[in-house]
């Protein structure tokens, strides 16, 4: 099963089931992750900065394409509520702007 490692959450490793969004996998693992619109792809608060393994993600969704075209989603970012990890492992981090105050982040 593909695995996501979140670097600035103390290298927390989360298994991502086939067809499962990253946000679903993170929540199933008990990790609180910002998602202001409720995981519907209407904002960019759930984004993740992908440091390794971008090639293992599924294709961009229509919402991700729209945000990318409007310069609200960088080439190294994905929306956790929209993207899947198709195969292989990936490494990413929570952007500074969307860190939750009650979570303990690492460098």
TrEMBL record:
Keywords: 2Fe-2S, Iron, Iron-sulfur, Metal-binding. Pfam families: Fer2. InterPro entries: 2Fe-2S_ferredoxin-like_sf, 2Fe-2S_ferredoxin-type, Adrenodoxin-like, Beta-grasp_dom_sf. PROSITE patterns: 2FE2S_FER_2. Residues 2-98 form the 2Fe-2S ferredoxin-type domain. Its cofactor is [2Fe-2S] cluster. Belongs to the adrenodoxin/putidaredoxin family. This is (2Fe-2S)-binding protein.
């Amino acid at each position: 099963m593909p695995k996501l490692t979140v670097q600035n959450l103390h290298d927390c490793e989360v298994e991502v089931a086939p067809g499962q969004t990253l946000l679903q996998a993170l929540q199933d693992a008990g990790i609180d992750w910002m998602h202001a619109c409720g995981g519907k792809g209407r904002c960019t608060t759930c984004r993740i900065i992908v440091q390794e393994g971008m090639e293992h993600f599924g294709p961009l969704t229509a919402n991700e394409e729209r945000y990318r075209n409007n310069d609200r989603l960088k080439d190294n970012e994905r929306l956790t509520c929209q993207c899947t990890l198709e195969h292989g492992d990936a490494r990413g981090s929570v952007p500074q702007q969307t860190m939750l105050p009650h979570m303990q982040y690492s460098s």
